[in-house]
Design brief:
The complex is a heterodimer of chains A (288) and B (260). Chain A is mostly helical and 288 residues long. Chain A has helices at 4-42, 48-52, 58-66, 76-106, 111-125, 128-140, 149-174, 177-185, 190-201, 203-217, 222-225, 245-253, 259-287. Chain A folds into 2 domains: 1-42; 78-287, Orthogonal Bundle (MetI-like fold), CATH 1.10.3720.10. Chain B has helices at residues 52-59, 87-93, 109-113, 115-119, 126-139, 143-146, 159-171, 189-202, 215-221, 239-244, 249-255, and strands spanning 13-23, 26-36, 41-45, 70-77, 80-81, 94-97, 177-181, 207-211, 224-229, 232-238. Classes of the chains: A mainly alpha (288), B alpha/beta (260).
């Protein structure tokens, strides 16, 4: 049976489907290529030492490279530094971010809340190096009187804030009005409805926002150069210079003997970010 | 107003000259006065937008949430001005059930029933807690269906069960009165029938005020009916009388389906 219009439509449909498939391949190819490159170049360095030893000095690395061995040492000082600073930054940004997010949700129609919301959006657009400069003048110059983990954390915390604030507000907005009213109809005071009904109901959403904020800052380098500086030692003192994984990558890049470590450190960082994103995706899936 | 009932003997709730306006030019409820009789089901009927939900929400002061709403007139619960009571006390005495079932999504069935106590920080002994939960769930004929899954989330139940859970939550405080805002509009016919049967049983212990846009529902389960139109209370009387021989022409037109 011949049906020219139908055939034409089938051909068109196939063309579009093929086009869309092709474009989606183009979209995902960079990430696939990046991961391929990082794995193929970096896997050799990933071993137990990588996680348990400090970064090597140039001489050790040079000897290893010249004799064709893998570079000794690891990035322990970077991992601990990153964890340490992310922890302090989270301790600063999560409570403040949640509170501002709740405020924006609660006062959504108020003029003042609108201004705050706009400023939060602007803050999201501030280049991270500028936040590093600000933290330098606030903390390095005036509080710790020297490069410090606290300064780095401050810059990171400011970066986290807008993400947490907006995700908190959006999450609370998604909770049906009827749930709030159920609380009011039981005579529950407003603050308790927020704390004991809305926040538990939106928990996975809030957690997702926090995880994404962490994955956003964990790879930040520029603000840390001006604040935490970097360190060859494992440092857990807030007032002392501290290393971080992205800072180490930058240092390795500047040392021709350590090129191999760039790839493995990047691979590590990439995997951590990927993991955080996957976990938050799971949380979102669980919510709906 | 051509109301049949000018006065109800010892009403649980008395509404006096109540007007509610969302903004100055647009009143939602205009000068409504009515007494609600104890241990009866009273239905508020009327086309959408006639102010029935607004009236209902004024009774337990849900409008307090929105500071721009203008409310005039008095509402007395057992002779006491509701505006003089704390919202916690008032809402312990007047429970409310909404259009859509809205159990707290993070709480178990058990916790949903006693949510009013939990969220208000009222501590109960474990035995009291269990007693309240069982009694409230038995009241709404849900106990046998959920007694083995009290720790499951309330949102796992079917729509009709959820709505009965919400009624149980409102009953847990042993209120004087329950307000229901179109409680069956989101339910299927079978679940609707169950809730209706439940309400006729519950009036033995509670006074029930029900908003419905479903006339036959009002006819089936209510003892008294109000008909509201454009914010005014047009007619208020025994349901039987009103459905057989409405006094106002607008009531008649509504009941005969000339407008809805």
């Amino acid at each position: 049976m011949e049906n020219p219009t139908l055939n034409k439509r089938i051909v068109k449909d196939r063309l579009f489907a093929g086009g869309i498939f092709l474009l989606s391949m183009v979209t995902i190819s960079p990430i696939v290529l990046i991961i391929y490159k990082l794995v193929s170049k970096g896997y050799r360095q990933i071993n137990f030492d990588f996680f348990s030893k400090k970064a090597p000095d140039t001489y050790e690395a040079m000897v290893a490279v010249n004799s064709g061995e893998i570079i000794p040492g690891g990035i322990l000082n970077g991992i601990t530094g990153t964890l340490f600073m992310v922890l302090i930054a989270s301790a600063m940004a999560i409570p403040i971010g949640l509170m501002i997010g709740i405020f924006l949700y609660d006062q959504k129609t108020k003029r003042y809340a609108g201004i705050v919301r706009d400023i939060v959006d602007i803050l999201q657009g501030v280049p991270s190096i500028v936040l590093g400069l600000i933290a330098y003048f606030w903390v390095v110059k005036n509080i710790t009187h020297g490069f410090s983990a606290l300064a780095g954390s401050t810059a990171l915390a400011i970066m986290m804030l807008p993400l947490i604030i907006r995700s908190t507000e959006e999450t609370l907005k998604m909770i049906p009005e009827s749930i709030r009213e159920a609380g009011f109809a039981l005579g529950v005071p407003y603050h308790k409805i927020i704390l004991r009904v809305l926040i538990p109901s939106g928990f996975s959403g809030l957690a997702t926002g926090i995880l994404l904020a962490i994955s956003r800052i964990i790879g930040e380098t520029a603000p840390l150069m001006l604040t935490a500086l970097g360190s060859m030692e494992v440092n857990l003192n807030m007032t002392k210079p501290t290393s971080a994984v992205p800072l180490l990558i930058w240092e390795f890049y500047n040392d021709p003997n350590m090129i191999d470590l760039i790839w493995s450190s990047s691979l590590f960082l990439m995997m951590v970010v990927l993991l955080l994103n996957l976990v938050s995706k799971q949380l979102i899936a669980k919510r709906s | 107003m051509s109301d049949l009932i000018k006065h109800i003997d010892d009403p649980v709730l008395e509404i006096r000259n109540l007007s509610v306006a969302y903004n100055k030019d647009k009143p939602a409820v205009t000068d409504v006065s009515a007494g609600i009789k104890k241990n009866k089901v009273t239905a508020i009927m009327g086309p959408s937008g006639c102010g029935k939900s607004t009236l209902l929400r004024a009774i337990n002061r849900m409008h307090d949430l929105y500071p721009n709403i203008d409310i005039n007139g008095d509402i007395l619960l057992n002779g006491e001005e509701t505006t003089n009571m704390s919202t916690i006390m008032l809402r312990r005495k007047i429970g409310m059930v909404f259009q859509r079932p809205n159990p707290f999504p993070t709480m178990s069935i058990h916790d949903n029933v006693i949510a009013g106590y939990k969220l208000n920080g009222i501590r109960l002994k474990k035995s009291d807690r269990n007693e309240i939960v069982e009694k409230s769930l038995r009241d709404v004929a849900l106990w046998d269906e959920v007694k083995d899954s009290l720790t499951k989330k309330g949102t796992f139940l079917s729509g009709g069960q959820q709505q009965r859970l919400c009624i149980a939550r409102a009953l847990a405080f042993r209120p004087d009165m329950i307000l229901l805002d179109e409680p069956t509009s989101a339910l299927d016919p079978v679940a609707t029938k169950k809730v209706e049967e439940l309400l006729t049983q519950l009036k033995e212990h509670y006074t029930i005020l029900l908003v419905t846009h479903n006339m036959s529902q009002a006819a089936r389960i209510s003892d008294y009916s109000m008909f509201m139109y454009l914010g005014e209370l047009i007619e208020y009387g025994k349901t039987k009388d009103m459905f057989i021989k409405p006094i106002d022409k607008r009531t008649e037109e509504y009941l005969t389906g000339k407008f809805s």
